[in-house]
Amino acid sequence: MGAGDQVLDSPTGWVAEHIHRYLETDGAEGHEWRPGVYTLLLTTRGRRSGALRRTALIYGRDGDAYVVVASQGGDPRHPAWYLNLRDDPQAQVQVGAERFTVRARTATAEEKPRLWAVMTGIWPAYDDYQAKTERDIPVVLLDRI
Fold this sequence. Notes:
The protein starts with 6 loop residues before the first strand and ends with a strand. Strand 5 (60-62) and strand 6 (65-69) form a beta hairpin. The longest helix is centred in the N-terminal third of the chain and has 12 residues, at 13-24. It has one domain: Pnp Oxidase, Chain A (Roll), CATH 2.30.110.10. It has helices spanning 13-24, 80-87, 112-122, 125-132; strands at 7-9, 32-34, 37-45, 52-58, 60-62, 65-69, 90-95, 98-106, 139-144. By secondary structure, the protein is an alpha+beta fold. Strands 1, 2, 3, 4, 5, 6, 7, 8 and 9 form a nine-stranded mixed sheet that branches. The chain contains four helices and nine strands. It holds the Pfam family F420H2_quin_red. It comes from Micromonospora radicis. This is Nitroreductase family deazaflavin-dependent oxidoreductase. One of its GO terms (molecular function) is oxidoreductase activity.
């Protein structure tokens, strides 16, 4: 991800506004989205277009790793950001004012129950999203590199 690459904000509507405020204020607005619910900005490279794509995601922590859920509200398809990370696990993250590079990996079957509990503790609706779809919703760890 080069310095000259243009980043396209993937979402529209209120999520796009959230990302805009997050960027404009260097995370002062938007990092804490709701009381106790924090978001990060994830920038991936499009697997087909090669364009940089940014989205906002609720996150948790597991040691030094950031944890996100590829729920897409229970949609039957994986979100584009997750598919992008499967093809190229290196991405950029902004947490508050801090920006850094990460390597993503999907939680193993052994790790997922513990991490799922962490994330549903932050955002209980993830259980509702899983109930809406036959897709096994992935949990993703983002490790700094």
